Amino acid sequence: MQRDAEIALSENADGIAFGILTATGAVDVKRCRQMVKLAAGRQAVFHRAFDVVKDPRTALEQFD
What we know:
This protein is of the alpha+beta class. The chain is 41% helix and 12% strand. It has helices spanning 2-10, 29-39, 56-61; strands spanning 15-18, 43-46. Strands 1-2 form a two-stranded parallel ribbon. It starts with a helix and ends with a helix.
């Protein structure tokens, strides 16, 4: 996913959409933050993985 995002951004994409969960079904905050950092100020959208998180309320509160 990171490699694909790097390619898209290098080709002037406006941003990236991603969704990364842990094996237990929680948002993988560390890896998601890496993707946001990779976007470098362009749009970064957490997409689809949220639909399957075990605890949506907690997941929403994990990001500023």
